[in-house]
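2024-03-11 09:14:02 INFO worker-7 job=invfold-0412 stage=load source=structure_tokens
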């Protein structure tokens, strides 16, 4: 099932933002490549550098917001060769960031 990303730009106090965080976290933990209880935290402060448990990621996304421009979730179950990307990344993303990853 595709995960929309429109919630990313919403005010963090809205129910739509909370719902988006929950859907994202569910997806990320389902597709966790390490198979454990932590994922990279994509909040503005952690910036995909630290792996955290579900409750910490949720708290960080609600309190600190999501990393700006992170719309291709390559650290959270989506890679460029994956068929899933077309379902998940339905919005345009910055191709300059793609060049930096290669």
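2024-03-11 09:14:09 INFO worker-7 stage=emit residues=102
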């Amino acid at each position: 099932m595709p995960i929309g990303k429109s919630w990313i730009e919403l005010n963090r106090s809205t129910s739509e933002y909370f719902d988006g965080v929950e859907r994202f976290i569910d997806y990320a933990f389902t597709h966790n490549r390490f198979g454990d209880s932590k994922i990279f935290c994509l909040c503005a402060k952690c910036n995909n550098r630290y792996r955290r448990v579900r409750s910490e990621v949720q708290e960080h996304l609600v309190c600190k917001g999501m990393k700006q421009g992170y719309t291709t979730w390559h650290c959270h179950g989506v890679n460029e060769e994956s068929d899933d990307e077309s379902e998940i990344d339905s919005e345009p993303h910055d191709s300059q960031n793609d060049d930096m990853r290669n």
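2024-03-11 09:14:09 INFO worker-7 stage=report msg="The beta strands are 38-40, 51-53."
2024-03-11 09:14:10 INFO worker-7 job finished
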